[in-house]
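**User:** Once you have settled down, spend some time on the protein underneath, comparing sequence with structure tokens, and judge whether sequence predicts the tokens.
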Amino acid sequence: MISKIRKQLTLFVAASEAQTIEWVRQAYNPNQFKLIKAHVTLCREDEIQQLDQVIANLQALSHPEIVIEFAPVERFDNGKGLFLPALPNNKTFHELRRKVLAGPANNPRKQMPHITLMHPNNSTCTNQIFQEMQSIEFPSKLHFSTISLIEQKDGGKWEIVSDFVFNKNA
């Protein structure tokens, strides 16, 4: 039997900043909570198919930590899902993506950073839940200093393959 293996580059939310986010995920989306910690996806699997080049870029990366500012919660996927969208100005996020994907994708597609609170594949955000979520004080900005290469086998729990720490002196 052939395993289906997925890989992504992810920015995990630091435990010190994740309490509220993880509480909501555990309470309202326990299946997704079990699969992966709160995160912002940096590069999706289709973008890192030339993994050797991407890893070389990560190893040579000189970049300060990034800060992403977030807007209030929003629904998506016909209201079933719930996420924290980033505010529009994310130059450092997009610059980081360009550096990581240099070579395989010199002009990567625009990707809106966000944190999924309720994934529509395994939860449903009702009107009542959405009203509750609007009253919760989520972090308005989060700091990221590590990129994680993660892997999922056959739909199971995402595991960290490697971590690449930003150069704080960059």
